[in-house]
Structure to design on (176 residues):
């Protein structure tokens, strides 16, 4: 970094992807969450945050390398979306 | 309601209880979430919101009757706390 920033450290946050999944009933929300847990095991990674109530699940993903989204992140996101479609 | 409030409607939010549960590893977080799901089935109710990442779970409960906390709400909260203690 430049001399002008001496004494400062970079604290960049990784880029994130957010999506809200809405469901009609808690049973559907629960099925999605269970499938998402299994998917996390399969990928060996976990969303940065999952925020849910009875009929919604908000998912925040961050780039796996902490810096930029790569094809593997897009695959993970797409697989999560597919789980929600299965439940419809 | 008084005449001064004609045209207005009450939009009270139910009282809520919040607690953050922190864990050292994702496996513990996951075990807590799984146990919490089972507890929700047992009680036939669900927290207003659950917000979790790899090593924390934030739980928000609302009064079951939407108006005031009753002993049943305290039992539900205490049982959730007990789940976290089991995992330690």
């Amino acid at each position: 970094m430049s001399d002008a920033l001496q004494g400062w450290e970079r604290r960049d946050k990784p880029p994130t992807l957010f999506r809200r999944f809405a469901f009609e009933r808690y049973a559907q929300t629960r099925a999605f969450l269970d499938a998402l847990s299994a998917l996390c095991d399969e990928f060996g990674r976990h969303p940065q945050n999952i925020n849910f109530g009875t009929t919604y699940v908000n998912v925040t993903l961050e780039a796996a390398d902490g810096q930029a989204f790569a094809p593997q992140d897009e695959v993970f996101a797409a697989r999560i979306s597919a789980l929600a479609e299965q439940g419809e």
Q: What stands out?
A: Chain B touches chain A through 13 residues (CB under 8 Å).
